[in-house]
Amino acid sequence: MKGQEWYQTDEVAEEYDAKRFSRGGRLIDGREKRAVLDALSPLDGKRVLEIACGTGRFTVMLAERGADIVGLDISEEMLQQGREKAKTAGVSDHLQFMRGDAARLPFPDDHFDAVFAMRFFHLADTPASFLSEMCRVSKDQVFFDTFNSYSTRSIYNWALPMGSRLYAESEVLRLLHGAGLRLRREEHDFLLPYGFYRAIPNSVAEPFRDVDRSLGDSTVGQRLSSVSYWDATVK
């Protein structure tokens, strides 16, 4: 798994949210949270597992909306940030954070109503095995995102500290089929790469985002989008 040691340092865990979701990165945070809510709602009483939950920005959000949720991550340092978020939000007793390996999930078959992972598959060295594990412990829904091969991210991917695994749509569809999942819905977004938005103030990012959405609605824009959201159901 790419970056496994990097994510387990105190410094990275403490600065993770501030570096990625401040300035124009707030637009990314909002879009990702909307994608998760659109896919998993209604949440009240739903049993949910988040893979690679990191600092808990989704885990806490879903707990606030009534989900019975477990957040799993390999990094104890990231999990500690999540616990602090849960305490601040007053939902510490409504969720559980666990340290664990996504390749060997410590849960029985069909244990959750839904399993999801955000910002995970671009680091996966064996995506098929991870997706199969997610499918195994879910009795209904699996949701995740990928970064795309035919996007602006491919131009500078080599320069990123860990790089990213980029996916073509055909590869994702093969992975879904191999895991025993049926695609229910897909969305594609962000012609401009995430790094661009994080580099500029939020007030400047908003007009660019408006143009991004308009161009992204076209057929060409959909194909060149940086990120895709995949909502699948267990066959």
From TrEMBL:
The organism's place on the tree of life at top rank: Archaea
Protein name listed in UniProt: Class I SAM-dependent methyltransferase
E.C. numbers: 2.1.1.-
GO terms of biological process kind: methylation
Keyword Methyltransferase belongs to the record: yes
Domain Methyltransferase stretches: 48-140
Sorted UniProt keywords: Methyltransferase, Transferase
GO molecular function: methyltransferase activity
Matching PANTHER family: METHYLTRANSFERASE
SUPFAM superfamilies per UniProt: S-adenosyl-L-methionine-dependent methyltransferases
Cytoplasm listed as a keyword: no
Pfam assignment, any one: Methyltransf_25
InterPro entries reported for this sequence: Methyltransf_25, SAM-dependent_MTases_sf
Enzyme class: transferase
Species in which this protein is naturally found: Halomarina rubra
